[in-house]
Amino acid sequence: MVKSELIKRSPLRVFEKSINGGLGKGNLGVLASRKGVGKTACLVHLATDQLFNDKHVIHVSFSSRVDHIVSWYEDIFKEISKMRDLENAVSVHDEIVKNRVIMNFNQEGISTEQILKSISAMITDGNFAADQVLFDGYDFGETSTEDIAKFKTFAQDHQLEIWFSVSLKPEEPCFDDEGFPIQLKDFTESLDVIITLAYAGDHVKLRAVKDHGNTELNNMHLMLDPKTMLIARE
Question: What is the pLDDT of residue 105?
Fold first, then answer.
């Protein structure tokens, strides 16, 4: 399969349709779940789809090491290319990896302003025209509504899609009666899309609990495949 056909058939097209066209530039999205459910895999699949579409991605990690992030990108690419029998996979890989930057911060030792200043320098001084920024492992328990509003302004100013992965605190309950993450309730004004991941039998189900300003939420009909760790149709 050629790259253009792979893009067309990707389950990410279903992902976009289920949230009314996708996250969109200038907006903030969140993938939220308990720890270890598969948020990083989802983030990397979202980013890889952007890379296949010739977009530029900045992946910001808040873990102490980033080598596992590189491994995730390699594994996700291999699974996609193998599943779709991608033509010229090596050439495609070498082409898209040039459009990805991985950055690393310790959230406890740096302010939101410093994080955004570093990313802005990469975009402007580094001539890296990012389309999407991922904040992997950002702790909403250690931030404020003012900080998240700054991310929102940054996304709008630079016309970026910004996704966060958030590990919900282990204390019960994590979700309210409607399935909304309790930890994120104070931040909903700045967040445009919130998607939860939770085990349903032998797979992880994706559910949109906030979709821009829509009051009627669509069933995403998507899951995280436990074998490939790819977003897939149910």
Answer: 93
User: Which domains does the chain possess?
Assistant: 3-233 (3.40.50.300)
26 vs 210: CA distance, rounded Å: 16
Among candidate residues 146, 119, 144, the one with its CA nearest the CA of residue 133: 119
Angle separating helix axes 112-124 and 145-158, nearest 10 degrees: 10
Q: In what order do the strands lie in the sheet with 203-211?
A: 100-104, 57-61, 132-136, 161-167, 27-33, 193-200, 203-211, 222-224, 231-233
Q: How confident is the model at residue 77 (pLDDT cuts 50, 70, 90)?
A: very high
76 phi/psi in degrees, rounded to 5: -65, -40
- Across 9-14, average pLDDT: 96
Residue in 109, 99, 169 with CA at minimum distance from that of residue 140: 169
In this prediction the pTM is: 0.96
Reported as a single tens digit per residue, the pLDDT across 91-116 is 999 999 999 999 999 898 899 999 99
- Helix residue ranges, H only, the chain: 3-9, 12-18, 39-52, 67-83, 89-96, 112-124, 145-158
